[in-house]
Amino acid sequence: MNYLLLSLAGLLALPALGQKKHVPARKPVHATPVRPVPVAGPQPILVSLAMLQGKWQSVDDKREFWIVKGTELTMRYVTSGTSTDDDVLRLQVTDTCAATCATLAAHTVAKGDYLAVVDVACSAPLCYSVVDVSAAALTLSYTARGNTLRFRRVKEAVEPKLRLP
């Protein structure tokens, strides 16, 4: 009889067929969160008035010139051999596109990535984003339409050639 009780006790101690042995639950392993590595995006091209001083000729229209003296910008278009069409404007370097002349002064900086062009009456400023600038080349984007303006620095005079009779 003892043998029978021992057998029965042994059977009760064994796990049932098809049942899994009880394994204590593992605690989930939490990986240390990976912080994203900042990717250096394109840095803004900063320009100053000093970098813009001089005469610039349009790469796309050889008769268009921008002449920068101090904060004065003369947009010159040579209409014929003896005449020009000049617009004398004010040029400022800004850190954003100023919507009005009232906000322009607050955004004027020594080096920035925008150029604001205003007329004497200071109507709405025209805003240009600086795409690229070097000693020999200047590329701007007119933000109102997205036009790209490409200029090269010129040393020769841009006065119209006078024809003598």
Automatic annotation (TrEMBL):
It comes from the Bacteria. This is Lipocalin-like domain-containing protein. It comes from Hymenobacter aquaticus.
